[in-house]
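step=encode ok
step=design start
structure_in=
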């Protein structure tokens, strides 16, 4: 549903928005009237007449090289004040200066007590580097070359998107998209774009308008309850609050400052806090990850989410980076700022408050039970609507939904390990001789292959629908660390994170294999959760049995994993640690802690690779096949050489595998209709009527997203649907 669809009659004229961007760049591109006829000429606006002397001389200077397209149809640009030029090859030195600017930062719009006012003008793209700088000259020259004009014919330009093009290691460069205005008198029909360069009218992103629904808000005794403060819950609550609907936001975990302290204590060897850890707490699991903002989904809301993050303090560059990220070190302040904005707009946020029950009356929600995560004390709150945005690790919510009669279904998920390399290896593999160029930063990768499914050691029938299984990398963290992501006692879970600078010595990525619903026995919808728990507990016990402290992680080198050997580099000796303080201390001494130098084992003698495992609770060298399902290990064994063919060195024998990674996505989907409301298990599957439960499954935990961006977008879509319901009253 588009933002326009959700405005309704009462909100169509409002100007308040989450992103708050004007429809034009603030980089000195907009210079006058948008009229298309004659009359007064406007600086920066192309002349519509014949070729001017300036343009003719420009054509003589630039010529029409053989790499130019044979013809160019400028009719589509008629009336455009600015043009978008994409696939501009940009030298790396042009990236040595950031085009971002503090004056470009969008400004939040406070709620007015009378009416919603338009947001102040902000840019839709980032400004160019400082005028006269070397980076500015390189950028201007690249744009001019792409268009077939002289550099002085480019009046001004603004960066819209930039990515690294490393397809040819001998010519690593940036690939950029710009919003461009041409000098006065330069005509569009005389442009001569280079081959591969695309030119079209610049269409800035439309702002997200939020309707003013304060007069329609329900009474204070009947709240819209948003359960969860991950990306889905936060962005849903932000929209609803700024629409005047005063949502009550509950989060089972702690506020981000308390959560950060609890995680640091756990990483240092302290006890696991079930209410404040990598999975639970303000911001969700994504707060302690790379803060990656890429997504495979296509939605206008992607821009709105990015703008809201910038408003909350995220770096401006996420607006133009092709692969934006915020970083674990910056995300806590960002999510706190979004929470404060929700509160200032009339919402209420309660931490350490778990959604414990949902009460239905006539098939629709009437109240919820909220439970204090520390004391267990309960409170019943009347609710007109409930948004279930609890994340993929809130396993008790799956059980609650099943017990209250909601329709659930198994969905595919993945399982595997974290693979860790020196970041320098990835840089060389991706960038070649350009790897040390300071404009590039830490390289990343994203790969996927399919491998034959084997049964009892033999390949499955090649004609079978399930003849292959996907093996892929996920959530690659350049210059990052492996994270201790447990949320339940007696289970080990790993994840990955990077700080904004991505300047750590290692890179890591999830290395996963598909788990399909038919891989699981029986018909119980909770079978995927059971498998996750089984693997996590097995990993905990395996590490302890091999001499590790509680919550140390089992690890194995790639060479030993592929050969079926147990890694012995730094292998802890002795039996399972006992329960005494002395035994725990001895176990900690035997655990291989982050930063420990590893000996090179026999199976990896031909590798010069030295990886210092970064998992904070320490790793214990084990045979990962003793905690992971056989079909997962078989798929990873087949997939590693294939991935190495895509990225040389990926399967180096000295790379480190740390496991298990079990929480990449939810194994369950809470079924909802086209109106975003949850279906009951008793609903007829072929009914034309949409469900009317007024319970809205949302985000990754409910099975409708796969990362920060897609979850945030889903939160906005749900909020729009609710706003549309109010507007239609």
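sequence_out=
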């Amino acid at each position: 549903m588009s933002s326009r669809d959700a405005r309704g009659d009462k909100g169509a004229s409002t100007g308040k928005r989450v992103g708050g961007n004007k429809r034009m760049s603030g980089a000195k591109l907009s210079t006058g009237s948008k009229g298309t006829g004659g009359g007064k000429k406007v600086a920066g606006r192309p002349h519509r007449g014949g070729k001017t002397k300036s343009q003719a001389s420009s054509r003589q200077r630039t010529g029409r090289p053989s790499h130019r397209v044979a013809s160019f149809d400028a009719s589509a640009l008629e009336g455009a004040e600015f043009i978008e030029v994409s696939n501009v090859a940009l030298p790396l030195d042009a990236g040595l200066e950031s085009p971002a600017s503090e004056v470009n930062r969008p400004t939040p719009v406070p709620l007015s007590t009378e009416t919603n006012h338009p947001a102040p003008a902000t840019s839709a793209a980032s400004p160019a580097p400082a005028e006269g700088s070397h980076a500015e000259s390189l950028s201007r020259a690249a744009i001019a070359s792409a268009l077939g004009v002289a550099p002085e014919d480019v009046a001004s330009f603004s960066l819209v998107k930039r990515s690294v093009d490393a397809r040819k290691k001998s010519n690593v460069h940036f690939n950029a998209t710009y919003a461009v205005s041409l000098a006065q008198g330069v005509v569009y029909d005389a442009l001569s774009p280079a081959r591969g360069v695309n030119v079209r009218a610049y269409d800035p992103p439309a702002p997200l308008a939020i309707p003013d629904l304060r007069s329609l808000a329900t009474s204070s005794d009947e709240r819209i309850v948003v359960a969860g403060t991950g990306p889905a819950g936060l962005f849903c609550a932000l929209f609803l609050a700024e629409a005047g609907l005063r949502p009550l936001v509950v989060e089972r975990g702690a506020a981000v400052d308390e959560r950060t302290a609890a995680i640091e204590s756990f990483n240092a060897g302290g006890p696991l806090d079930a209410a404040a850890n990598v999975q639970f707490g303000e911001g969700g699991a994504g707060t302690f990850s790379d803060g990656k903002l890429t997504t495979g989904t296509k939605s206008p809301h992607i821009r709105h989410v990015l703008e809201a993050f910038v408003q909350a303090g995220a770096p401006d560059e996420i607006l133009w980076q092709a692969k934006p990220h915020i970083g674990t070190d910056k995300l806590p302040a960002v999510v706190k700022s979004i929470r404060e904005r929700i509160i200032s707009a009339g919402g209420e946020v309660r931490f350490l408050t778990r959604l414990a029950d949902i009460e239905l009356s006539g098939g629709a929600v009437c109240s919820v039970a909220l439970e204090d995560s520390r004391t267990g004390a309960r409170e019943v709150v009347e609710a007109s609507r409930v948004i279930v945005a609890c994340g993929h690790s809130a396993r008790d919510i799956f059980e609650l939904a099943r017990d209250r009669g909601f329709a659930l279904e198994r969905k595919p998920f993945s399982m595997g390990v974290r693979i860790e390399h020196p970041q320098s290896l990835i840089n060389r593999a991706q960038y070649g001789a350009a790897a040390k160029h300071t404009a590039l930063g830490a390289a990343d990768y994203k790969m996927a292959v399919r491998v034959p499914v084997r049964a009892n050691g033999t390949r499955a029938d090649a004609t079978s629908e399930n003849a292959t299984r996907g093996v892929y990398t996920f959530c690659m963290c350049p210059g990052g660390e492996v994270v201790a992501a447990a949320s339940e006692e007696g289970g080990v879970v790993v994840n990955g994170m990077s700080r904004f600078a991505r300047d750590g010595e290692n890179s890591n990525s999830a290395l996963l294999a598909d788990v399909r619903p038919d891989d699981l026995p029986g018909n119980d919808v909770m079978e995927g959760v059971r498998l996750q728990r089984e693997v996590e507990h097995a990993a905990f016990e395996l590490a302890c049995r091999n001499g590790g402290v509680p919550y140390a992680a089992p690890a194995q080198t790639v060479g030993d994993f592929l050969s079926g050997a147990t890694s012995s580099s730094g292998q802890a000796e002795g039996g399972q640690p006992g329960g005494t303080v002395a035994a725990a201390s001895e176990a900690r001494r035997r655990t291989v802690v982050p930063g420990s130098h590893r000996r090179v084992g026999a199976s990896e003698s031909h590798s010069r690779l030295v990886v210092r495992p970064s998992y904070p609770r320490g790793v214990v060298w084990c045979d990962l096949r003793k905690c992971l399902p056989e079909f997962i290990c078989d798929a990873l064994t087949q997939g590693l050489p294939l991935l190495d063919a895509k990225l040389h060195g990926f399967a180096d024998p000295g790379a480190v595998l740390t496991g298990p990674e079990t929480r990449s996505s939810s194994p369950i989907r809470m079924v909802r209709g086209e109106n975003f409301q949850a279906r009951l298990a008793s609903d007829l599957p072929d009914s034309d009527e949409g469900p009317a439960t007024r319970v809205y499954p949302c985000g990754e935990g409910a099975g409708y997203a796969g990362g920060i961006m897609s979850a945030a977008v889903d939160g906005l879509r749900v909020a729009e649907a609710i706003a549309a319901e109010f507007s239609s009253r």
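step=design ok
step=annotate ok -> The chain has 14 helices and 25 strands.
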